[in-house]
């Protein structure tokens, strides 16, 4: 359904009250490009691990915003919100208990810095932080440890509809990566 008052080229939005089902308060924004991620198998072979490949590429191409000695921070390719970062150790390990004390410390330090930088550049009101350990726990890439840093705003939806459904993102990944990387404190 296209809003007659919408500008030319606007993305159509469907109102759920017009469907043959119990209406709800949500509108749907269709994002078929995500099917590559959903259907393509979220668990890559070890030699294809995106978190092992990313540090070998340039920062812009891999969406890396900061590199440390034991871990690095990059934008999530499939973010829940604009500025959704991941912090990963360079070493290919699956769970937090396999991390060395140095890796744990640097993951924590990068997380703190990321929160400060994202707050500064995006004026968010809070964060969801988390690690899904193992495929059964919801880890998209279960073979390589990674922590999510999801910025939240008072006016965004609550976390569960975001995970269960589709989220419209107002900014391009490359623009967000550049803004966060430029604001990241230099060593």
TrEMBL record:
**UniProt KW Glycoprotein keyword:** no
Could you tell me which SUPFAM superfamilies the record lists for this protein? HIT-like (SSF54197)
Q: Which domain of life is it from?
A: Bacteria
One Pfam family linked to the record? HIT
**Which residues are involved in binding substrate?**
76, 148
Q: Which residues form the HIT domain?
A: 50-159
Q: Which InterPro entries match?
A: AP-4-A_phosphorylase, FHIT, HIT-like, HIT-like_sf
Molecular-function GO terms, alphabetical: hydrolase activity; nucleotide binding
Its name, as the record gives it, is: Diadenosine tetraphosphate (Ap4A) hydrolase
| Lineage summary | Bacteria, Bacillati, Actinomycetota, Actinomycetes, Micrococcales
């Amino acid at each position: 359904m296209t809003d007659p008052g919408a500008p030319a080229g606007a993305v159509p939005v469907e109102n759920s009250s017009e469907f043959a089902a119990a209406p709800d308060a949500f509108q749907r924004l269709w994002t078929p490009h995500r099917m590559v991620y959903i259907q393509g198998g979220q668990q890559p072979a070890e030699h294809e691990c995106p978190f092992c490949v990313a540090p070998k590429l340039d920062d812009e191409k891999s969406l890396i915003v900061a590199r440390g000695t034991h871990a690095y921070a990059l934008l999530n390719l499939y973010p829940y919100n604009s500025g959704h970062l991941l912090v990963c150790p360079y070493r290919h390990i699956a769970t937090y208990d396999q991390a060395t004390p140095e890796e744990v410390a640097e993951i924590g330090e990068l997380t703190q810095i990321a929160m400060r930088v994202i707050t500064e550049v995006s004026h968010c009101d809070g964060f969801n932080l988390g690690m899904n350990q193992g495929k059964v726990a919801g880890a998209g890439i279960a073979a390589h440890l990674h922590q999510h840093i999801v910025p939240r705003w008072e006016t965004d939806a609550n976390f569960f509809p975001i995970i269960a459904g589709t989220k419209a993102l107002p900014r391009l990944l490359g623009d967000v990566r550049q803004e966060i990387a430029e604001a990241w404190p230099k060593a």
